[in-house]
Amino acid sequence: MLFLENIKLALTSIRSNKMRSFLTMLGIIIGISSVIAITSIGDSAKATVSKEFESFGKNNVMIYPNWRENPDMTISPNAAFSQEDIDALSVRFEKELAYIDPSNNIQSETTVGRVKGKWAVQGVAGDYDKFKNMNIIHGRMISNSDLKGKRDYVVIEKTGAKFFFNTENPVGRTLNLNVNGNMREFVIIGVYAEEKSLFSGLMSTSAYAAYSPYTSIQGDLEINASMLNIYIGDGYDIKQTSDAMVNYLEKIKGIEKGFYTSDSVESQQGTVDQILGTLSLAIGAIAGISLIVGGIGIMNIMLVSVTERTREIGIRKALGARTNDILVQFLIESMIISAIGGVIGTALGAGIAVIGMSIAGAELVISPLVVLFAVLFSAMVGMFFGIYPARKAAKLDPIEALRYE
Amino acid sequence: MSKEIIRLENIYKTYKNGTINVEALKDINLTIKEGEFVAIMGVSGSGKSTLMNILGCLDRPTGGNYYIEGVDVSEKTDDQLSQVRNKNVGFIFQSFNLIPRTTALKNVELPMVYAKIPKEERRCRAIELLNGVGLGDRYHHMPNELSGGQKQRVAIARALTNKPPIILADEPTGNLDSKSSIEIMEIFRKLNKEDKNTVIIVTHEHDIAKYTDRIITFFDGEITSDKETENMKQEAL
Ligand SMILES: Nc1ncnc2c1ncn2[C@@H]1O[C@H](COP(=O)(O)OP(=O)(O)O)[C@@H](O)[C@H]1O
Ligand SMILES: [Mg+2]
Asked: B50 in ligand 1 pocket by Cβ < 6 Å?
């Protein structure tokens, strides 16, 4: 029959039973809104996390003894990384190795005037800001000559600058730091601003962050690191190169194979993505089940509606409606109920995602494909669960339907 | 003479109710010519409605053949019968059978919707038909806002939409007072005499039957008499 006529008919029937239609839609609304909310939140979380990882640089690799697989391995003093190891790596992987530091750090109680506080100083090599995303707002970052010259320079975070010096720009002033028991005077050569991130809240300590040449904060002691912090140069395969570095270190240090392991931001991000993906898939499946429940609700109401309208169906058939006319009429009705539910659910789900993401402070990603899919899918649910009632209506015998009381 | 429009040959209808079989029609043979005005009479339960439902293609006989304009209807599929109901017969029920919560205009338009007639044309024809039955001021009334006589007039307008040659009415005045009954019968007479429709009416009131030209009487599923009325004899004079 005429398609438009059927849509009008369906809308009239939905309108004349507003409350019932709404309750029928509710299952679909809940199902679709949770699918939309969950996939949007999942996508947004993924995007946020990958942005977070990118601030470290995707090419960041850590090399360390494989504690995870051999928790009770004994460490010979030889196993720790020395400056010699760092130099050897830099020579052997001259092209591939863009940056390396032994990942050392110190904590120091410091007094400036009458202000007392704590600093956490991370040892870095030169040009660290070229690899890790850093926002230098005053002065400069530690350079390679600072590293070679073992200069007592420090680059501090903005909030620390404000706390100790009551200015964002204390470049040129000095800071006393406790290096292995000796108080030494460090010159502030730069200030950077920490970008607000999802992790900064988690990692917050009472200490203010700062960077110094790793040679300076080692004091008079030899480098004796349990971990190497490395950036691989552009264009080199991260996994392959880091494996080669691990092999090389094991070889030159005369240590059995598999003693060291490497971990890259790339592989960590892959793991997190996988966890997030599995999570949204699992919750999405639960939401999918609620869609099926919603569909059964539609089937139930359509069956009631067919029974209630048996006489009407009889009249329509008596006036010339064919089996298909009645079938399409009821199919379109259940599809429209379901699609309206889908549209409302999409809006609601997007709303939930917007609120959720604004609380988390992350950017919202709503994929138009997901929205399209949700509405189409809900219409399909309506159609699928509408088939049985519609067939029941269409197959009614005209004279029996007319006699129905 | 005018040609035959309806022919029943050895029509049987048996209802099975569990183990009990009810023979509602037994070996009915009947011919009705184009333009006839026929009343079907008989006591309650004699098989009148059963016959009308078969004539209107709402039901199928258990046995025998039914020809409309020489075409055997018994052979047709359900959807083809829908077509016949839509185009060839206009059926009017005792209980009106208007679609509830739907305006008079929409009710009249309905058979044209199934005939795939465009909207504008549907609207025009429905208005014309409602005017024809004297309901020019009731287009947008719902069935529950109409009196019995008005409802039946809407039902007649609806039966006429696709200009069917055959009009069937099963006790059309059964639920009406005598004044409305007369009005309705006048409409049927006009349809027969002026528009040359074949009209078959079931009734058990002689006053109503008097409007027609031929009275067929049923008893226990069989035709017991088939006579021309005074009208015919007067016309013949
Ligand atoms: N659907 C049905 N099932 C069983 N018996 C029926 C059914 N319809 C009619 N009958 C029986 O068939 C006979 C004829 O009924 P009907 O044609 O309705 O009579 P009328 O219209 O002359 O009053 C009656 O005995 C009635 O009980
Ligand atoms: Mg009857």
From this structure: yes
pLDDT the model gives residue A367: 79
Which of B85, B98, B113 is nearest residue A2 as measured by Cβ atoms?
B113
The string of pLDDT tens digits covering residues B18-33 is 899 999 999 999 999 9
- Tokens 């329509």 found at: A316
d(CA B101, CA A104): 82
Q: Which helix (H) or strand (E) holds A38?
A: helix A18-56
Closest residue in B to A15 (Cα–Cα): B101
Closest chain A residue to the Cα of B79, Cα to Cα:
A322
Which residues in B lie closer than 8 A to residue A323 (C-beta atoms)? Answer: 78-79, 82
- Chain A nearest CA to B97, separation (Å): 7
Closest by CA to A287, choosing from A373, A384, A354, is: A373
The residue of chain B nearest to residue A310, with distances taken between CA atoms, is: B99
Candidate from B12, B22, B26, B55 with most ligand 1 atoms within 8 A of CB, to mutate: B22
Q: Measured from the CB, is residue B77 less than 6 Å from ligand 1?
A: no
- Token pair listed for B136: 């020019």
Chain B positions touching A399 (Cβ under 8 A) are 53, 58-59
pLDDT at A1 > cutoff 90: no
Give the DSSP letter of residue B213. S
- Beta-strand runs (E) in B69-134: 71-72, 89-92
From A7-21, B77-91, B169-183, the region with the lowest mean pLDDT: A7-21
Give me ligand 2 centre to Cα A304, in Å: 29
- Looking at beta carbons, which residues of chain A come within 8 Å of B86? 319-320
* Sequential DSSP letters for chain B: -PPEEEEEEEEEEEEEETTEEEEEEEEEEEEEETT-EEEEEE-TTSSHHHHHHHHTTSS--SEEEEEETTEEGGG--HHHHHHHHHHTEEEE-TT--PPTTS-HHHHHHHHHHHTT--HHHHHHHHHHHHHHTT-TT-TT--GGGS-HHHHHHHHHHHHHTT--SEEEEESTTTTS-HHHHHHHHHHHHHHHHTT--EEEEE-S-HHHHTTSSEEEEEETTEEEEEEE-HHHHHHH-
Tens-place pLDDT, residues B30-69: 999 999 999 999 999 999 999 999 999 999 999 999 999 9
CA distance B172 to chain A (A): 16
Q: Is the CB of B49 under 6 A from ligand 1?
A: yes
Count other Cβ atoms within 10 Å, centred on residue A113: 8
Angle, vertex CA B154, rays to CA B153 and CA B156, nearest 5: 60
Distance CA B218, CA A315 (A): 27
Cα-Cα-Cα-Cα torsion A39, A45, A50, A56, nearest 10 degrees, comes to -170
Q: Is the pTM of this model over 0.90?
A: no
Q: For residue B210, what is the DSSP state?
A: T
Strand partners, B8: B30, B66
Q: A-chain residues within 8 Å CB-CB of B113?
A: 1-2, 5
Look at ligand 1, atom 5, and give the residue with the nearest C-alpha: B15
Pairwise CA distance, residues A167 & A113, whole Å? 14
How far apart, in whole angstroms, are the C-alpha atoms of residue B207 and residue B92?
Answer: 19
Report the separation in Å between the CA atom of B66 and the middle of ligand 1, taken as the mean of its atom positions. 20
Q: Give the residue from A333, A318, A319, A336 showing the smallest Cα distance to A401.
A: A318
* Average pLDDT, rounded, for chain A: 87
